[in-house]
Write a structure and sequence with these properties.
Helix content is about 30%, strand content about 35%. The relative contact order is 0.30. It is globular. Strand 4 and strand 5 form a beta hairpin. The chain has a single domain, classed as 3-Layer(aba) Sandwich (Bit1), CATH 3.40.1490.10. Strands 1, 2, 3, 4, 5, 6 and 7 form a 7-stranded mixed sheet that branches. By secondary structure, the protein is α+β, with helices and mostly antiparallel strands. The longest helix is centred in the N-terminal third of the chain and has 18 residues. It is built from 3 helices and 7 strands.
Length: about 120
């Protein structure tokens, strides 16, 4: 079964205040949608809406960069969504979306957990 995996950090790390920005559920959903749309634009031969979209998380922006490198080593093609926001005054990588791959075919992705909104935890 082919799937698209979208990976989003729970916190975005910035070099400017605020240095850590928690990814709210709404922000995460928007970034996941943008990232999936990027794959659809690059791959007009597939219909993204016909595939399972699996949203996974990593702890931080740094972890997302490490995952990006691991996916490249595995030969998994992906798109990177970079957000521009006043909250962190610049452009930061906030989502990675794979091109369609077989379920469980990436060791790097298999090690991740599903997205869970950390902002509302007490």
């Amino acid at each position: 079964m082919m799937r698209i995996y979208i990976v989003i950090p729970r916190t975005v790390d910035s070099e400017k205040p605020p240095f850590k920005l928690c990814m709210s559920c709404g922000r995460m959903a928007a970034h996941a949608a943008h990232a999936a749309a990027m794959v659809q634009d690059k791959r007009p031969d597939i219909n993204v809406s016909d595939l399972d979209l699996i949203v996974l998380s990593v702890g931080s922006s740094r972890d997302l960069l490490i995952l990006r490198d691991a996916l490249k080593c595995e030969g998994v093609q992906s798109e990177e969504y970079k957000d521009v926001d006043k909250a962190f005054e610049g452009e930061l990588l906030t989502a990675i979306c794979t091109w369609p791959i077989e379920a469980k075919s990436s060791k790097a992705l298999n090690a991740l957990r599903p997205w869970k909104c950390a902002c509302n935890e007490t």
